[in-house]
């Protein structure tokens, strides 16, 4: 298993020591998920975090009427987890599903928490990661879902994920944007 890409991503948030890298390496293992297989299932108490080396995952849930709502995409070099459920040790409200065959570097959340306690540089990585993805990225997304038009949300989606539209089906994009595939088709037509 090649961990260079993994640690390069870690170091893009905060550079960690070789000692911390070696300790973390002992907890990493690689797994391949086939298309449509689950990384995490609704109702499961999640215990692992995954780094997407290759492939694409999506975090989604189902509405009362059975519609699928995609909350987040995890393309290459993203970390996938049901963080809220993992931190509270409760059942996940979300599925994380492989939309493509995916190669994932995984590690146990409990082992990671020990590393955070033992290595201040890993703790700083964790803080920087959470700041970027749970505050800086998440807050504007919550506002746009309520305030922006579907066309504006699609424009923002293209900025955030410029390479994903060619890898996704239209219903995946529509689900992420909170609109119907028909509404998405209208946006496509208006942008031609």
Automatic annotation (TrEMBL):
Q: Which InterPro entries match?
A: cNMP-bd_dom, cNMP-bd_dom_sf, RmlC-like_jellyroll
Among Gene3D superfamilies, the record links this protein to: Jelly Rolls (2.60.120.10)
Transmembrane residue ranges: none
In which domain of life is the source organism classified? Bacteria
Name-wise, this protein is: Crp/Fnr family transcriptional regulator
- The scientific name of the source species is Flavobacterium pallidum
């Amino acid at each position: 298993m090649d961990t260079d890409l993994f640690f390069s991503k870690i170091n893009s948030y905060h550079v960690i020591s070789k000692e911390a890298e070696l300790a973390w390496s002992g907890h990493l293992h690689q797994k391949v998920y086939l298309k449509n297989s689950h990384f995490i299932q609704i109702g499961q108490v999640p215990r692992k975090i995954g780094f997407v080396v290759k492939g694409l995952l999506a975090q989604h849930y189902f509405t009362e009427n059975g519609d699928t709502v995609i909350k987040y995409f995890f393309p290459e070099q993203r970390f996938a987890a049901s963080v809220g459920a993992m931190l509270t040790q409760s059942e996940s409200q979300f599925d994380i599903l492989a939309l493509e065959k995916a190669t994932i570097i995984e590690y146990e959340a409990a082992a990671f928490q020990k590393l955070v306690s033992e290595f201040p540089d890993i703790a700083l990585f964790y803080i920087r990661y959470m700041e970027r993805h749970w505050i800086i990225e998440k807050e504007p997304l919550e506002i746009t879902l309520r305030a922006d038009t579907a066309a504006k949300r699609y424009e923002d989606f293209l900025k955030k994920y410029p390479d994903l539209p060619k890898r996704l089906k239209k219903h995946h994009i529509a689900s992420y944007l909170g609109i119907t595939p028909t509404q998405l088709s209208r946006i496509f037509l208006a942008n031609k």
